[in-house]
Amino acid sequence: MTAYFIAQIQWNSPADREAYVHSLGGVIEKHGGRYLITSSESRVAEGQWLPGRLVVIEFPSMADLKAWYESEEYRPALELRLKGSRSNAIMVEGNPAPPSR
């Protein structure tokens, strides 16, 4: 079953974000991941949640997602993100929605 990494990220500075992005070096793709969403802004449709920057990354399976997140290759980037931002992240399993007709 497909798995998704969904993160809400508020960077301390553009330099922190750039350092993180530069440190990724293809490790997401190495684990089968692909970006679905990288947003700089969001708008509230319902409720009071205002996440700011959202990132959604799709992986073939939860095992692939966990292998990426826990990998030695990702660890330096993760440490940069945790130091350089305030963030919330979840791992979710689910199937992509079928195309609408």
Quick structural gist:
The model has no long low-confidence stretch (mean pLDDT 92).
Helix content: 25-40%
Q: Which topology of the domain at 8-44 and 64-87 does CATH recognise?
A: Alpha-Beta Plaits
The helix tally amounts to: 4
Order of helices and strands: EHHEEHHE
Largest β-sheet summary = 4 strands, antiparallel
Mean pLDDT: 92
Residue windows where pLDDT falls under 50 for at least 5 positions: none
Highest-level CATH class of the domain at 8-44 and 64-87? Alpha Beta
CATH architecture descriptor text of the domain at 8-44 and 64-87 = 2-Layer Sandwich
What strand order characterises the main sheet?
2-3-1-4
Can you walk me through this structure?
The chain has four helices and four strands; from the N terminus they run βααββααβ. 33% of the residues lie in helices and 30% in strands. It has a domain at 8-44 and 64-87: Alpha-Beta Plaits (2-Layer Sandwich). The chain is an alpha+beta fold and 101 residues long. The two termini are 23 Å apart. It has helices spanning 14-24, 27-30, 62-69, 75-84; strands spanning 3-11, 34-38, 53-59, 85-93.
Name the descriptors:
101 residues; Alpha-Beta Plaits
Question: How would you summarize the topology of this molecule?
Answer:
Elements: E1 3-11, H1 14-24, H2 27-30, E2 34-38, E3 53-59, H3 62-69, H4 75-84, E4 85-93
Antiparallel strand pairs: 1-3, 1-4, 2-3
Helix pairs in contact: 1-4
